[in-house]
Amino acid sequence: MTNKGDLTAQRREYLAQPLRREDLNEDPIAQFAKWMDDAIAVSPDDATSMTLATASKEGMPSARIVLLKHFDADGFAWYTDYRSQKGAELAENPQAEIMFYWYGLERQVRIQGNVEKLSQAQGEKYFNERPLGSRISAAASHQSHPVESREALESSVKALQERYPEGDVPHPEQWGGYLLKPTRIEFWQGRESRLHDRFQFNLTDEGWSIQRLQP
C-alpha cells in the first residue's frame, strides 16, 4: 500500500541561468533591489512576501509570512502588532532572519540581522496610508491572542466602524514597524542537478565581503 505521506518521489528540475561572481553587484542592497524588480515583473502580487523567522529567549523558533514594505541601505522594514508572537519574541531576542523565495525565477534570498522598532511617526504614517478595512482590522485585533469566536472578532470591527463612521481610525500605539539591519545576506539561484549557485555577503568592519558557498 502506498504511503500517502511519502513525498520522496516529488521532484523538479531547476533550469535557470547561472549566477556568476562577476554578475553580482558589490553592494548587496543594490543586488537585492535588482532581484526584487525582476520578481515584481514576474509576479507582482507575491514578490514582497517573505518568511520572517524569530526566536524566543529560550531559542524556540517561529516563522510566518509577512510583507516587505520598504528597504534601503539601513535595512528591511515591515509592520505589525507589537503584541503579536513575533513582537514578543523580538522584544526578548531582537534578532531575526527574513527569506524571499521567487518560484518563477528559481531564486531565494536570506537576510539575517538585528532588529529595532521604527519610530512611532513612521508607524503612524504608514498606518494612515493603509485601506480603511486594514486599519480597522489592525485596531480591532490583539494579534496572536485567543478570541472566543469569529463573531466576537467581527463585533469588535463593527464597534470601531460605528465609532469612526468617517474612517478616521486613530493609529494604535501598539501597532508599528520593525527594521532588520542586515549583517548577512545570501543570494541563491537554482541550477540543474541541484548544483545551485550561492553567494553570501557578510558585513565586516571594512564593508561587505563576498564568498561562494557550496550548494
Name some characteristics of this structure.
215 residues; alpha+beta; Pnp Oxidase, Chain A; nine-stranded antiparallel beta sheet; globular; EC 1.4.3.5; oxidoreductase; Pyridoxine/pyridoxamine 5'-phosphate oxidase; Split_barrel_FMN-bd
Explain the overall architecture.
GO terms for molecular function: FMN binding; pyridoxamine phosphate oxidase activity. FMN binds at residues 64-69, 79-80, 86, 108, 143-144, 188, 198. It is an enzyme of class 1 (oxidoreductase). The protein is of the alpha+beta class. The protein has one domain (21-131, 173-213): Electron Transport, Fmn-binding Protein, Chain A (Pnp Oxidase, Chain A, Roll). Helix content is 26%, strand content 34%. It has helices at 28-42, 85-92, 120-129, 132-140, 150-163, and strands at residues 49-55, 61-67, 70-72, 75-81, 95-102, 107-117, 175-189, 197-204, 207-213. Strands 1, 2, 3, 4, 5, 6, 7, 8 and 9 form a nine-stranded antiparallel beta sheet that branches. Helix 4 packs across helix 5 (150-163). The radius of gyration is 20 Å and the shape is globular. The two termini are 35 Å apart.
The N- to C-terminal Cα distance equals 35 Å
% residues in beta strands: 25-35%
Mean pLDDT: 95
Q: From the 3D coordinates, which CATH architecture would you assign?
A: Roll
Are there runs of 5+ residues with pLDDT below 50, and where?
Answer: none
Helix and strand run: HEEEEHEEHHHEEE
Instruction: Specify the structural class.
Output: alpha+beta
- Assembly type of the chains comes to single chain
Number of strands: 9
Count of individual domains: 1
The count of helical stretches stands at 5
By CATH, the superfamily comes out as Electron Transport, Fmn-binding Protein, Chain A
Protein name: Pyridoxine/pyridoxamine 5'-phosphate oxidase
Subunit structure: Homodimer.
Binding site for substrate: 11-14, 69, 126, 130, 134, 194-196
Pathway: Cofactor metabolism; pyridoxal 5'-phosphate salvage; pyridoxal 5'-phosphate from pyridoxamine 5'-phosphate: step 1/1; Cofactor metabolism; pyridoxal 5'-phosphate salvage; pyridoxal 5'-phosphate from pyridoxine 5'-phosphate: step 1/1
